[in-house]
Protein backbone atom coordinates (compact mmCIF):
# COMPACT_ATOMS: atom_id res chain seq x y z
CA UNK A 1 0.00 0.00 0.00
CA UNK A 2 1.01 3.60 -0.55
CA UNK A 3 -0.39 6.77 0.95
CA UNK A 4 -0.16 10.25 -0.56
CA UNK A 5 -0.88 13.46 1.35
CA UNK A 6 -1.69 16.62 -0.59
CA UNK A 7 -2.11 19.72 1.57
CA UNK A 8 -2.64 23.38 0.81
CA UNK A 9 -4.92 26.38 1.28
CA UNK A 10 -8.40 26.75 -0.23
CA UNK A 11 -8.34 27.00 -4.02
CA UNK A 12 -4.79 25.78 -4.51
CA UNK A 13 -6.01 22.94 -6.73
CA UNK A 14 -5.33 20.12 -4.30
CA UNK A 15 -8.70 18.38 -4.71
CA UNK A 16 -8.55 18.39 -8.51
CA UNK A 17 -4.97 17.15 -8.50
CA UNK A 18 -5.60 14.52 -5.81
CA UNK A 19 -8.45 13.03 -7.85
CA UNK A 20 -6.26 12.82 -10.94
CA UNK A 21 -3.35 11.28 -9.03
CA UNK A 22 -5.69 8.66 -7.58
CA UNK A 23 -7.07 7.92 -11.03
CA UNK A 24 -3.62 7.57 -12.57
CA UNK A 25 -2.39 5.26 -9.81
CA UNK A 26 -5.74 3.45 -9.47
CA UNK A 27 -6.01 4.06 -5.74
CA UNK A 28 -8.74 5.54 -3.52
CA UNK A 29 -9.20 9.30 -3.30
CA UNK A 30 -10.43 10.74 0.01
CA UNK A 31 -11.61 14.34 0.25
CA UNK A 32 -11.00 15.43 3.85
CA UNK A 33 -12.47 18.86 3.19
CA UNK A 34 -15.74 17.21 2.23
CA UNK A 35 -15.97 15.69 5.70
CA UNK A 36 -15.71 19.11 7.35
CA UNK A 37 -18.20 20.50 4.85
CA UNK A 38 -20.53 17.60 5.62
CA UNK A 39 -20.41 18.22 9.35
CA UNK A 40 -20.89 21.96 8.86
CA UNK A 41 -23.75 21.35 6.42
CA UNK A 42 -25.44 18.85 8.70
CA UNK A 43 -25.49 21.10 11.75
CA UNK A 44 -26.25 24.36 9.94
CA UNK A 45 -28.81 23.10 7.44
CA UNK A 46 -30.33 20.23 9.40
CA UNK A 47 -30.00 21.49 12.98
CA UNK A 48 -29.87 25.24 12.26
CA UNK A 49 -26.87 25.79 14.52
CA UNK A 50 -23.07 25.94 14.52
CA UNK A 51 -22.88 26.26 18.29
CA UNK A 52 -19.76 24.46 19.49
CA UNK A 53 -21.35 22.88 22.56
CA UNK A 54 -24.31 21.60 20.57
CA UNK A 55 -22.00 20.06 17.99
CA UNK A 56 -19.87 18.39 20.67
CA UNK A 57 -22.93 16.96 22.41
CA UNK A 58 -24.52 15.48 19.27
CA UNK A 59 -21.49 14.64 17.09
CA UNK A 60 -21.68 10.95 17.99
CA UNK A 61 -25.14 10.78 16.41
CA UNK A 62 -23.65 11.71 13.03
CA UNK A 63 -22.84 8.56 11.03
CA UNK A 64 -20.49 9.05 8.06
CA UNK A 65 -19.41 6.23 5.74
CA UNK A 66 -17.94 5.86 2.25
CA UNK A 67 -19.84 4.02 -0.47
CA UNK A 68 -19.08 4.03 -4.21
CA UNK A 69 -16.82 7.10 -3.78
CA UNK A 70 -19.59 9.08 -2.07
CA UNK A 71 -19.99 9.91 1.59
CA UNK A 72 -23.22 8.69 3.17
CA UNK A 73 -24.41 10.73 6.15
CA UNK A 74 -27.13 9.19 8.31
CA UNK A 75 -28.35 7.36 5.22
CA UNK A 76 -28.22 10.40 2.89
CA UNK A 77 -25.86 10.55 -0.09
CA UNK A 78 -23.92 13.81 0.08
CA UNK A 79 -22.45 15.52 -2.98
CA UNK A 80 -23.69 18.80 -4.46
CA UNK A 81 -25.26 19.87 -1.16
CA UNK A 82 -21.81 20.74 0.23
CA UNK A 83 -20.30 22.42 -2.85
CA UNK A 84 -21.72 25.88 -2.20
CA UNK A 85 -19.85 29.00 -1.09
CA UNK A 86 -21.56 28.89 2.31
CA UNK A 87 -20.57 25.29 2.98
CA UNK A 88 -16.91 26.28 2.84
CA UNK A 89 -17.49 28.82 5.58
CA UNK A 90 -19.38 26.24 7.66
CA UNK A 91 -16.43 23.88 7.25
CA UNK A 92 -13.96 26.49 8.45
CA UNK A 93 -16.09 27.07 11.55
CA UNK A 94 -16.49 23.43 12.61
CA UNK A 95 -12.85 22.61 11.80
CA UNK A 96 -11.84 24.67 14.83
CA UNK A 97 -13.58 22.20 17.15
CA UNK A 98 -11.15 19.51 18.46
CA UNK A 99 -13.82 16.79 18.61
CA UNK A 100 -14.75 17.40 14.97
CA UNK A 101 -11.13 17.13 13.86
CA UNK A 102 -10.71 13.91 15.84
CA UNK A 103 -13.78 12.40 14.19
CA UNK A 104 -12.63 13.36 10.67
CA UNK A 105 -9.09 12.13 11.27
CA UNK A 106 -10.34 8.81 12.62
CA UNK A 107 -12.51 8.26 9.53
CA UNK A 108 -9.58 9.00 7.21
CA UNK A 109 -7.12 6.81 9.11
CA UNK A 110 -9.53 3.88 9.34
CA UNK A 111 -10.05 3.89 5.57
CA UNK A 112 -6.32 4.31 4.89
CA UNK A 113 -5.45 1.33 7.07
CA UNK A 114 -7.33 -0.91 4.63
CA UNK A 115 -6.17 0.46 1.26
CA UNK A 116 -3.86 2.80 -0.63
CA UNK A 117 -5.16 6.36 -0.52
CA UNK A 118 -4.62 9.88 -1.79
CA UNK A 119 -5.95 12.42 0.70
CA UNK A 120 -6.09 16.18 0.33
CA UNK A 121 -6.64 18.68 3.10
CA UNK A 122 -4.81 21.09 5.35
CA UNK A 123 -3.12 18.82 7.89
CA UNK A 124 -2.89 15.44 6.15
CA UNK A 125 0.90 15.30 6.00
CA UNK A 126 1.39 16.81 9.45
CA UNK A 127 -1.38 15.21 11.54
CA UNK A 128 -3.64 12.73 9.77
CA UNK A 129 -1.02 10.63 7.95
CA UNK A 130 2.36 11.86 9.22
CA UNK A 131 3.99 8.65 7.93
CA UNK A 132 2.63 8.95 4.40
CA UNK A 133 5.20 7.86 1.82
CA UNK A 134 4.60 10.95 -0.31
CA UNK A 135 3.66 14.44 0.80
CA UNK A 136 2.93 17.53 -1.28
CA UNK A 137 1.98 21.08 -0.38
CA UNK A 138 0.24 23.06 -3.12
CA UNK A 139 0.14 26.86 -3.01
CA UNK A 140 -1.13 29.72 -5.20
CA UNK A 141 -1.68 33.42 -4.74
CA UNK A 142 -4.90 34.44 -2.99
CA UNK A 143 -5.98 36.29 -6.13
CA UNK A 144 -5.50 33.25 -8.34
CA UNK A 145 -7.36 31.03 -5.89
CA UNK A 146 -10.24 33.49 -5.69
CA UNK A 147 -10.44 33.59 -9.49
CA UNK A 148 -10.60 29.81 -9.67
CA UNK A 149 -13.32 29.63 -7.04
CA UNK A 150 -15.28 32.45 -8.71
CA UNK A 151 -15.20 30.68 -12.09
CA UNK A 152 -16.17 27.36 -10.51
CA UNK A 153 -19.23 28.83 -8.80
CA UNK A 154 -20.25 30.83 -11.88
CA UNK A 155 -20.22 27.60 -13.91
CA UNK A 156 -22.58 26.12 -11.31
CA UNK A 157 -24.95 29.03 -11.83
CA UNK A 158 -24.37 30.72 -8.47
CA UNK A 159 -24.56 34.50 -8.11
CA UNK A 160 -21.17 35.36 -6.59
CA UNK A 161 -18.87 38.35 -6.19
CA UNK A 162 -15.12 38.03 -6.85
CA UNK A 163 -14.08 40.56 -4.21
CA UNK A 164 -16.19 38.85 -1.59
CA UNK A 165 -14.66 35.47 -2.49
CA UNK A 166 -11.16 36.97 -2.26
CA UNK A 167 -11.99 38.39 1.16
CA UNK A 168 -13.34 35.04 2.35
CA UNK A 169 -10.27 33.18 1.07
CA UNK A 170 -7.93 35.54 2.93
CA UNK A 171 -10.02 35.11 6.07
CA UNK A 172 -9.94 31.31 5.71
CA UNK A 173 -6.18 31.43 5.18
CA UNK A 174 -5.80 33.40 8.40
CA UNK A 175 -8.10 31.07 10.33
CA UNK A 176 -6.45 27.95 8.96
CA UNK A 177 -2.87 29.07 9.62
CA UNK A 178 -3.44 30.57 13.08
CA UNK A 179 -5.76 28.05 14.72
CA UNK A 180 -4.34 26.33 17.80
CA UNK A 181 -5.15 22.81 16.65
CA UNK A 182 -3.46 21.38 13.54
CA UNK A 183 -2.85 24.70 11.75
CA UNK A 184 -2.28 24.72 7.99
CA UNK A 185 1.44 24.34 7.32
CA UNK A 186 3.79 22.50 5.04
CA UNK A 187 5.19 19.27 6.50
CA UNK A 188 8.98 19.34 6.77
CA UNK A 189 9.31 16.37 4.42
CA UNK A 190 6.74 17.59 1.87
CA UNK A 191 7.40 18.91 -1.63
CA UNK A 192 6.02 22.42 -2.16
CA UNK A 193 4.51 23.27 -5.56
CA UNK A 194 3.29 26.76 -6.48
CA UNK A 195 0.38 26.26 -8.88
CA UNK A 196 -0.29 29.95 -9.62
CA UNK A 197 1.08 29.89 -13.17
CA UNK A 198 0.72 26.16 -13.82
CA UNK A 199 -2.13 24.22 -15.35
CA UNK A 200 -3.51 20.97 -13.98
CA UNK A 201 -1.46 18.77 -16.30
CA UNK A 202 1.77 20.53 -15.28
CA UNK A 203 1.14 19.92 -11.59
CA UNK A 204 0.00 16.34 -12.15
CA UNK A 205 3.13 15.55 -14.14
CA UNK A 206 5.36 17.07 -11.47
CA UNK A 207 3.77 14.98 -8.72
CA UNK A 208 3.82 11.74 -10.72
CA UNK A 209 7.47 12.34 -11.64
CA UNK A 210 8.31 12.72 -7.97
CA UNK A 211 6.51 9.48 -7.09
CA UNK A 212 8.44 7.77 -9.90
CA UNK A 213 11.69 8.94 -8.29
CA UNK A 214 12.48 11.95 -10.47
CA UNK A 215 12.48 14.95 -8.13
CA UNK A 216 14.34 18.07 -7.03
CA UNK A 217 15.08 18.00 -3.29
CA UNK A 218 15.39 21.80 -3.27
CA UNK A 219 11.61 22.02 -3.56
CA UNK A 220 11.09 20.64 -0.08
CA UNK A 221 9.45 22.80 2.60
Automatic annotation (TrEMBL):
It comes from the Bacteria. One of its GO terms (molecular function) is dCMP kinase activity. Its EC number is 2.7.4.25. It holds the Pfam family Cytidylate_kin. The keyword Signal does not apply. Keywords: ATP-binding, Cytoplasm, Kinase, Nucleotide-binding, Transferase. It comes from Geotoga petraea. It is found in: Cytoplasm. NCBIfam families: cmk (TIGR00017). ATP binds at residues 8-16. It catalyses: CMP + ATP = CDP + ADP; dCMP + ATP = dCDP + ADP. GO terms for biological process: pyrimidine nucleotide metabolic process. This is Cytidylate kinase. Its main location: cytoplasm. The keyword Nucleotide-binding applies.
